[in-house]
Every structure is written in structure tokens, then in C-alpha cells.
Amino acid sequence: MKKYCYVIISVCLLVMLLQVNADLTCSDVTSRHCTRDRRPVCGGNGAKSITYSNKCEYCRERRDDKSWKILHDGEC
To answer: Which fold has domain 37-75?
Structure first.
């Protein structure tokens, strides 16, 4: 029974981790026109980081630059 609980907990943690990583990509942003929603994200390339007003703004500016990625939600 104890092993079963560990397996369930591990699966739940894995699913949560995968969802977080999916949220940090631009795959779900299809429009080149962004709203003015203020939901800042921090994007960076290892040497530099910039706060964008929202995920759409980040994706619009950095979609073709694979060296950049969304580091986390919120300001840098």
C-alpha cells in the first residue's frame, strides 16, 4: 500500500512539472496581435533577462530566437 501511494504521488508531481514546462513555451500563442493584459513574464538567454508585459508580447518578439526562453512568470 505504501508503494502504491508513492507511485501516485510521483505521477501527480510529474504531471504538474510537465504542465509548468508547457506553460513556458510559445506553442499556444498563435496570434501576432497581443492584448494589453499585464501578466509579466521574465525571458532570458543566460546572459541577459528582460521583463515582458505578458507571454504574448514575449512570444511575438522572441518566437524565432531559440536562444531565449521564458524563465518564469513575474518580473525578472
So the answer is: Wheat Germ Agglutinin (Isolectin 2); domain 1 (3.30.60)
